[in-house]
Design goal:
A hairpin with a 3-residue loop joins strand 2 and strand 3. With about 150 residues, this protein is an alpha+beta fold. It has two domains: about 55 residues, no CATH class; about 55 residues, no CATH class. Helix content is about 30%, strand content about 30%.
């Protein structure tokens, strides 16, 4: 597991990119929790009736839920906690590592900073940490390419 955070001016820019930009649009939402005026939570599972004919998937894409998230947190009072677990699309996961079943990132906005934690699950049990290393390196490069300099803790 790789952990890092953004603070200061990077937080505002990241939250704008996250909620209004396309940074994570193709990631699937595995969990989202918002503590604002009330507690809102979803497991990200998609209602199959909303999919076009012939399309099949289990989870909503971030681009399908980010508008709702933005609506729930906008206002003059910041949410107490805004936590989202996103997973890399399955085809990209397979491309990065043949034994990866899931590669995900937990993004938590709390107390004027954004914390990121990576995680993976494997198709076949292995003590080898190569899946984690590949995903951690991908995430570091992803953020650097996006113009962010993550701070590790």
């Amino acid at each position: 597991m790789y952990g890092f955070f953004l603070s200061g001016d990077h937080v505002r820019r990241f939250m704008n990119d996250f909620l209004k930009g396309k940074l994570f649009d193709d990631f699937t939402v595995r969990h989202m929790e918002i503590f604002s005026v009330a507690h809102f939570e979803t497991d990200g599972r998609i209602n199959p009736d909303f999919l076009p004919e012939g399309e099949s998937r289990s989870y909503c894409l971030w681009r399908e839920l980010k508008g709702a998230a933005f609506f729930l947190i906008k206002g003059s009072i910041k949410p107490r906690i805004f936590k989202t677990v996103l997973a890399l699309p399955p085809e990209k996961t397979e491309e990065l590592h043949k034994n990866a079943a899931s590669m995900h990132i937990t993004i938590t906005f709390e107390k004027d900073r954004v914390v990121f934690l990576t995680g993976t699950s494997q198709k076949k049990f292995s003590l080898d940490k190569d899946t984690d290393r590949v995903w951690e390196e991908y995430v570091k490069e992803f953020f650097i390419r996006s113009g962010y300099e993550p701070e590790t803790f």
